[in-house]
Every structure is written in C-alpha cells, then in structure tokens.
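Re: that chain you flagged

S.,

Sorry for the slow reply, it's been a week of failed gels. I finally had a moment to sit down with the sequence you sent. For the record, here it is as I used it:
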Amino acid sequence: MLDDFLVRAALAGLGVAVAVAPLGCFVVWRRMAYFGDATSHAALLGVALALAFDLPIFGGVLVIALAMALLLTLLTGKGVSGDSILGVLAHAALAFGLVAVSFLPGVRVDLMGYLVGDILAVSKPDLAVIWAGALAVLALVAARWSALLSATLSPDMARAAGVDPQKEQFILTLALAITVAVAIKVVGALLIAALLIIPAAAARPLSRAPETMAAAAMIIGAASALGGLMVSFALDTPTGPTIVCIAAVIFALTRMVQAGRA
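Prediction finished late last night. Pasting the structure tokens below so you have them in one place:
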C-alpha cells in the first residue's frame, strides 16, 4: 500500500498534523507566532549543515532548530525587545542558510523543496521519521500538558504550585524543534510556522476548553493536509502552499461562524 506516493503523502500530512496541533495551541496562547517563524527559518541552515557533513537532513535540521530556539529563549528579556530579537534571528538564519547552501561544492540542492516542501516525494524512511517525531512530540506534550498549561496561563501561579515556567519553556522549545525537523519535508521552512499557527487559531472560536481546542486543531490540521493534497493533485499546484491555503480557508470559515454567533 505504501508504494502509492499519494498514500505516503497523506500519511505524512497526517503525521505533521498530529505533531503541530497541540503545540500550535501553545504557540497561539503564548503569542509565540514569530518564535515558530524564527525556528523554522533556521531549518535551512540545518539542511546546509547536514549536506556539508553528510548527515541525515532530519538530524541537521533538529540540531539547528533546537540551537535557534534555545538562543531565542536565552536572549529574550536581555535589554532588547523580543520582536527585534526574533526579527533579526529569523531573517539572519534564513540568509545564512541560503548562503551556506551556495558554498557546498558539487552538491545540487532543490531549495524550493526545502523552502515550500515536497510532500509528494516522501519516502518510506521519511514517513518513519515523520511519525516517530510526531508521536514523540505528542507524548511529550501529553505528559507535560498540565504543567505547560499552568505555566502558560500564569507563570506566578505555576511557581506557587511547584511548576518551573523556565523548564516548561524548554520543553516547549524542544517540542518545537522536533516539529520543525519533522515538518520541513512536508511544508518546507517557509510554511512550517503557518501550519503551526493557522489550525490552532481556526480551532479557537470552536472551543471552550484547552483540550477541546487541541483536538479541534488536530482535526483541522488533518483536514488541511488531506484537502490540500487533493486540491493540489487536481489543480497541479504546489502541495505545501496549497495545504496552508486550505488551512487559511478553514480559519476564515471559523471566524465567520464566530461572527455569526456574536
């Protein structure tokens, strides 16, 4: 069954949806949209590192994404506004990644594949990596759900309850780095942040509890992945951007539902 490239693509999209849905909710709640953007932009530098040292792409992207996320965490609140730090690091990482790729001797790199994804080229080993990473993220977030939620809602009350907000921030950072490494093959470095944020934002008007929002975001992410794949195949459009377009349409529809209730 997995010899069918469309089936592999669908399973890859579902794997990414599983990973990004609950994590995207925390990104929305913490207003960390640019944080995810900066981490995903650094992924291209990870691709260059992996190619230069003949390492697996997943490993190179994971190392750089984690390093970028930790750097952002360390620099935040050090006398420079968070938006400024995120803006500088996000665009600098992307630029350094593009320059680094150009210096690789004898290596032909399909930059578009890494920038906007190439879900139709997902192989069986890629699929195994995607689902292993997705399940790892899901297990990590599920295990720390209460602590992450407490640290998100009120860091002061979390400390009073014995929860270390900085530790939870690190766990969220680790999960974000794994998600970026998993998703780059499907939607690419430029669109990862969009797939993180849009399904969670679309789920918000439909939910009254955090757990409901996470479940709704997972359903919307899966629908976006499968719907984008079908539309892309039918209209011969780039699959990664089409997936994000479908997610954006669902977001618009949920906002219309919210406006109708008001």
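What I noticed first: The radius of gyration is 18 Å.

Talk soon,
D.
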